Amino acid sequence: MIKKSFGRYLPLIAVLAAYLFLLLYLGSYKLYLYEDEVLSYTSANSETGMYIELESDKWYDGSLVQNAVTAMPGETFHYANTLKNSFADNHPPLHTLLVHTACSFFPGRFSKWYGLSVNIIAGLFLLIVLYQIGLLIFDGRRMPSCAFLLSLVFSLGFTDTLLTIRNYTLLMLGCSIYMLLHLKALKENRVDRRFFLLLFCSAVFGMMCHYYFLTVAFYISAFFCLRQLFQKHFRDFGIYVVTMVLAGIATILILPDIISDIFFSQSGSGNFALRNMGELINRFKTTYLIINQDIFFGRLKFFLLAAFIILILAVLHKRKDGIEAGSSKGIPVLTGFLERHRLILLPAFTCLCFYIIGSATLTYLATRYLSPIYPFLVLLLTFFADRICGLLFRNQSVGLAIFIFLMILPMYDRISAGLTDHNKILMTEAAELHSSDDCVLISGFPLEENFFELQRFHGFCQISSHSDTKDPRITEAKELVVYIPNGKDSQECISLMQKLNPGLTKAERLYVAYYSTAWLLQSEE
User: In this structure, what DSSP letter does residue 462 have?
Assistant: First the structure.
């Protein structure tokens, strides 16, 4: 009995092992944190606020950076401070609480793995949930369910999301739990008290992960409620609505700032901005291109064509069956077809709505913001691949194995092309090479972008682009590294530094980065 149970879960265990190996391997190449990822650490640990503000003409050393991103001794498991920072970040607090917990086990030390571990563990739970979704969609068949998971694990968008130390992995987990709950109800064709209790819990949990959960949950709920109304299950519909209202009230009580964060914050209000037709078309194209690259390795149009052909053939086949059975009415045949395929139609409806409405409304269009529907897109892809394999191959497992191989190839290409961000290495190496120098920041760019470089310098100071400082560490320096915000005239800023210190006659550009350009100013001596 034990051997049979283990054999049942062996495919899932193999997928989870492949996932862990891949994420640990890719994570080892992550040499730097980007601006939002730095904010994850400062939100989790900084005692002085999520954003580190520098006073002009004041010198700092690396301890400022170290204290901001680590749980310092005496400040471990200090969740009240983490909650305060999270609310300032206009994000739910669950992710930062987990990051702070991970950091608290290693006081005074920083590692990228603290944040990555939160994502990797959440990803394990996500894959287990998705495996259950696969078993529902594929009628308990393990082969296509594992093909679904492997295709997702090796997709570029999925790995990019998990390697980004933000709350988007938790967002995928919350959306997937919510989807699983509704798919089970559709499969059993009934709801009970347990369903409504889990509905309440999953809705609250999802909102603790990310506010974008609300958009995905709305489409899932809309599909489910429309079906309830169509089947005249008015009592169940009423209880569903009441449950969701209670979940909303509970969320507001837990997160009092949620209304202002969603509707009135800078990022939240951007979702409601009015856009002209030209902007909308460009946004639809942008979303298409991101999804095409992240999930479909540049072949989305072929998958859409294959899906359309299979759909037409399936409808015609069902219509023929209906006519032969004595029913020539198109609507009953179509209704029966939709009811039989209600499970796969739910993620399809969710993805379509998210694409159309999300493209038009989301403040930002990038991999991490589209990631909530990535698991469902891969599920749809695997569903149609499974149908095609059933038509083309006598042994369907052979066809699915070929499908898995094709889905893994893009990750192989990425690894072969190199995983190192050479621009970030250049930035870090330049700071290390000039670590004995002082660094001057011309104000005007996010400090978080150069956060980990700054701690390498002997000291750093921020000045305005119109500074007249008399600080001898600037006016008498023989060598200075200067960070100039992109968008400002570098020559004007260099002239300012040479005005403050006429001895700095030599200027050499070290690199151009994401938000700043670094220059080395030296005297002739």
Answer: E
Can you give the pLDDT at residue 324? Answer: 46
pLDDT score, position 217: 94
Contact criterion met (CB below 8 Å) for 429 and 409? no
According to the model, what pLDDT value does residue 216 have? 94
**Ramachandran sector of residue 489 (left: φ over 0; alpha: ψ -120 to 50; beta: rest):** beta
Residue in the block written with tokens 């350009």: 517
Within 10 angstroms of residue 204's Cβ, the number of other Cβ atoms is 18
Largest CA distance in the chain: 98
Q: Residue 16 and residue 146: Cα distance in Å, rounded? A: 10
Tell how strand 479-485 and strand 516-522 pair up: antiparallel
Residue 225 is inside which H or E element, if any?
Answer: helix 213-230
Count of CB atoms situated within 10 Å of the CB of 122: 23
Compute the CA torsion angle 81, 85, 88, 90 (nearest 10 deg): -120
Distance CA 159, CA 179 (A): 21
pTM of the model: 0.88
Helices (H), 422-503: 422-433, 451-454, 472-475, 490-500
Give me the residue label for tokens 């902007």.
279
What letter represents residue 10's amino acid? L
Residue 274: its pLDDT value, please? 63
- Residues of the chain predicted below pLDDT 50: 1, 323-328, 330
For the stretch 389-426, pLDDT in tens is 887 777 888 888 888 888 888 888 888 877 777 777 77
Structure tokens at 256: 């009092």
Three-state secondary structure call for residue 224: helix
How many Cα atoms occupy the beta-carbon half-sphere of 506 within 13 Å? 11
C-alpha dist (Å) from residue 170 to 66, 166, 388? 26, 9, 33
Q: Is 460 helix (H, G, I), strand (E, B) or coil?
A: strand
372 alpha carbon, distance to own chain's centre: 8
